[in-house]
Write a structure and sequence with these properties.
Elements: E1 8-9, H1 12-20, E2 26-31, E3 39-45, E4 50-57, H2 61-77, E5 85-90, E6 96-102, H3 113-126, E7 144-146, E8 149-151, H4 159-174, H5 181-192, E9 205-207, E10 216-218, E11 224-226, E12 232-234, H6 236-243, H7 251-260, H8 267-286, H9 291-300
Parallel strand pairs: 1-5
Antiparallel strand pairs: 2-3, 3-4, 4-6, 5-6, 7-8, 9-12, 10-11
Length: 303
């Protein structure tokens, strides 16, 4: 399997035969909790192996090809752990799309878990990104998803126009009906004045793209691994901002990250603007409960 192509099978049975041998079957299936987009299962095989399977309607098969592409990109950096990709496809017998990965056993965390995670994330952010943004610096080699929403990844030479045109503008358009005339004027002005708030990064970074605590798990080596990415090349501080949106990580993580990858001055003034993208996405996916947070950020910038 190359860096962006998920090995395709015509059924889960076909995949098991190809990957583990003709005698290997599913001995047991256990539903796994977590996530609200896909069904997830632990599959115990007759040879003693356990694997992880996601399943969704065949119309959503692109969720899995995009996820696989993102996991493969993160794995290619060699900086931080991700689940091992096995393959996927649309099962001819059930008509459902599936994605197979190695099962994460949930080992005990290593000593210095959070510092190690921070150092590895910083290393991922420093990895050369030309493989994913041919002809530019920011974006990705294909569109993908942020949760269940499509995510536009055109390639740009500059970060701020990318963030405006591929992140904020599409979400604001979807959420247009939530805003009154005065709020729309503020939104227009905010988008026009992004250069007064954001900065171009010192170097482009491969981002996880949806880096909240639910997408960080303890891997089979006891270190932090990344799952469910929404990858693209952007400014590393956008990942850090997302970690702070829904509760945050321990301070020791942030101290270690800043030691490994010193952040540009003024991050605190930019953080909420990065998280505005995710809050708009939640507003569009889940409804009005997120509107006060969105309006609070829009009103908080005096431009």
């Amino acid at each position: 399997m190359n860096d962006t192509m998920l090995q395709q099978f015509i059924s889960v049975e076909d995949a098991l035969t190809s990957l583990f041998g003709s005698g290997v079957k599913i001995a047991g299936t256990e539903r796994v909790s977590g996530g609200d987009i896909n069904e997830a299962y632990k599959l115990a095989l007759t040879d003693g192996t356990c694997i992880f399977m996601k399943s969704n309607k065949k119309e959503n098969a692109s969720f899995f090809t995009a996820e696989a592409s993102g996991l493969a990109a993160i794995a290619k950096t060699g900086a931080i752990g991700t689940p091992h990709l096995l393959g996927g496809g649309v099962d001819k017998s059930t008509g459902r799309a599936f994605l197979l990965m190695g099962f994460i056993e949930g080992k005990a965390r290593i000593k210095n878990y959070w510092e190690t995670f921070a150092y590895e994330l910083a290393e991922m952010h420093r990895t050369e990104t030309g493989n994913w943004t041919v002809g530019g610096k920011f974006g990705f080699n294909g569109n993908n998803y942020i949760g269940a929403s499509s995510q536009k990844n055109e390639v740009y030479d500059n970060w701020i126009p990318f963030f405006r045109e591929c992140r904020l503008e599409p979400q604001f358009k979807k959420a247009f009906h939530y805003f009154g005339a005065g709020e729309r004027k503020k939104i227009t002005k905010l988008l026009e004045k992004l250069e007064n708030i954001l900065v171009e990064p010192e170097y482009p970074s491969l981002l996880h793209g949806d880096l909240w605590s639910g997408n960080v798990i303890t891997g089979n080596d006891g270190k932090a691994w990344l799952i469910d990415p929404a990858v693209y090349v952007g400014h590393g501080e956008a990942d850090i901002a997302m970690t702070e949106l829904f509760g945050g990580f321990p301070q020791i993580f942030y101290d270690a990250y800043k030691e490994a990858a010193p952040m540009q001055p003024g991050y605190g003034q930019r953080r909420d603007l990065y998280n505005l993208y995710h809050l708009l996405n939640h507003l569009n996916l889940f409804g009005q409960a997120y509107l006060p947070s969105v309006l609070g950020i829009i009103g908080g910038y005096r431009i």
